[in-house]
Amino acid sequence: MVSLSLIILSAVYFSMALGNYHRLGLSPLETVIFTFLFVLLTLLVSSWILVLMSTHQKIRPNGLRLYSTWMLVNIYYYLAKWLGKLVMQKKKELQESFLNFNNEIVLSNYSGIHSNNILVLLPHCLQNSECKIRITNDIIDCAECGACDIAKVKGIMSKHNVRAAVATGGSLARKLIQDSRPDVIIAVACHRDLTDGVRDSWRFPVYAVLNERPNGPCFETRVSVSIIEFAIKKFA
Ligand code: SF4
Question: Which of 122, 133, 166 to mutate to test the pocket of ligand 1 (most atoms within 8 A of CB)?
């Protein structure tokens, strides 16, 4: 969608610039405007190439990596959204493709992380609704009865020595991230929360794992623990 948007924008730009030039020639003001738009378009295309490169190779230095992430979440996401609306793409499809694309970038750019600096963030709706234990920031209190996937996550947390926390909302998730400042976050949530979370916390690498909702949204959701373990092994 982003590549297609850039091709459309380039085609519009060149047809307008050449059309004006052939008709009357460009006035000084038009020359300034078209030069500015050309620089902008070149910047957009070259930055997009950088973002595409980051899906299969590590971008250095860090500043350049942050720049490409910023462009992805603040510019290209909206370009894809704009074109997606034009072709009536479903919101969930756009979010899923954004999350998958972001995951590829995070996997290519972060490895060799100390397991202690990996934070697994879980949504509160993962917990069984009848559980008497109040699982808040840390999942260490889980009695591992097996009625929900928190027990399995606790198992891999101990196995790989990673931290895992439950966030009851976006603000708490942001606070947990700011307080612990992990090197990599593996976040479990629904399409909307993950998309917002990845975009809000763009300074931190967030690997997104979509939860399953067999009982409807926000109620006793499930997660594939093997995907979380796969990500931990890739980063550690
Ligand atoms: S697995 Fe843990 S969190 Fe889930 S219901 Fe059992 S004790 Fe509660």
Answer: 133
For the cut 70, the answer to whether the pLDDT of residue 125 exceeds it is: yes
Give this prediction's pTM. Answer: 0.90
Structure tokens given for 148:
């929900």
| 75 contact partners, CB below 8 Å, separation of at least 6 | 44, 47
The pLDDT score that the predictor gives to residue 23 is: 67
Residue 21 pLDDT level (bands cut at 50, 70, 90) = low
Gap from CA of 210 to ligand 1 centroid (Å)? 20
Residue 145 Cβ < 6 Å to ligand 1: yes
From the CB of 148, is ligand 1 less than 6 Å away? Answer: yes
The atom number, within ligand 1, closest to the CA of 151 reads: 1
Ligand 1 centroid–CA 221 distance in Å is 13
Q: Which amino acid is at 89?
A: Q
Q: Which two tokens stand for residue 170?
A: 């976006």
**What value does the mean pLDDT take over residues 217-223?**
94
φ/ψ of residue 204, rounded to 5: -105, 140
Q: Any idea which fold 112-235 has?
A: Rossmann fold (3.40.50)
Q: What is the DSSP string of 66-134?
A: HHHHHHIIIIIHHHHHHHHHHTT--HHHHHHHHHHHHHHHHHHH--S--GGGEEEEEEGGGS-TT--S-
